[in-house]
Design brief:
It is built from six helices and seven strands. By secondary structure, it is α/β, with parallel strands linked by helices. It has one domain: 3-Layer(aba) Sandwich (Rossmann fold), CATH 3.40.50. It has a seven-stranded mixed sheet, with helices on both faces. Strand 2 and strand 3 form a beta hairpin. The radius of gyration is 15 Å and the shape is globular.
């Protein structure tokens, strides 16, 4: 059995959002696309999609994966995610959503299966469209906004200069976490990436 996984990087489309904290998931998907040696292309699901095999690990030739980045805005991510899953016949237990997370420190990773949306509009939309929250999440920490800054404003701002210096390494580590999750399962990925 060689059923694919779907890895979705959440974000907002367009150049004006490309470097924002809310696009952390899409940035991780870009790292994974580079590892596949391919480029995203438009798909009728209203997402940019790339298929291939990631890693080799204990599964030999690698894990079949469909990478997707919705072309909708964050709060409408669910429709494209559902359409990609329907098109490729991917069940929620084989879906991995990579997203920014306010409640953990910058660059910290947390992986889990299921749960609520914790106020994240992208997750809320995905859960509503799928009719379940029982999918994997790779949470990329962006930290809380400083002072009294509105979280909605904070997530749509670019990473700070200091954060941008660290970002490539942290995105690479998040991509490693996704690959470990796909190849070895949730517990192994949590053991490897929750330490820090």
């Amino acid at each position: 059995m060689d059923e694919p996984f779907c890895v979705v990087g959440l974000g907002n489309p367009g150049a004006e959002y490309a470097g924002t904290r809310h696009n952390a998931g899409a940035l991780v998907a870009d790292v994974l696309a580079a590892r596949l040696g391919g480029r995203f292309s438009g798909h009728r699901s209203r997402a940019d999609v790339l298929s291939g095999r990631l890693g080799s690990g204990r599964l030999g030739s690698g894990v079949r994966v469909v990478l997707a980045k919705p072309r909708s805005y964050m709060n409408e991510s669910g429709g494209p995610v559902r359409a990609v899953c329907d098109f490729y016949k991917i069940t929620p237990d084989r879906l991995v959503v990579v997203h920014d997370e306010l409640d953990i420190g910058f660059g910290v990773l947390r992986l889990k299966l299921g749960g609520g949306d914790n106020g994240h509009n992208g997750l809320r939309s995905v859960t509503r469209s799928l009719g379940t929250g029982d999918y994997h999440r790779v949470r990329f920490g962006i930290g809380r906004p400083p002072g009294r800054q509105d979280p909605a404003d904070y997530v749509l701002r670019d990473f700070s200069t200091a954060e941008r210096r660290e970002l490539p390494l942290l995105l690479d580590r998040a991509a490693d976490a996704v690959e470990t999750l796909l190849a070895e399962g949730l517990a192994a990925a949590q053991n490897a990436f929750h330490a820090s």
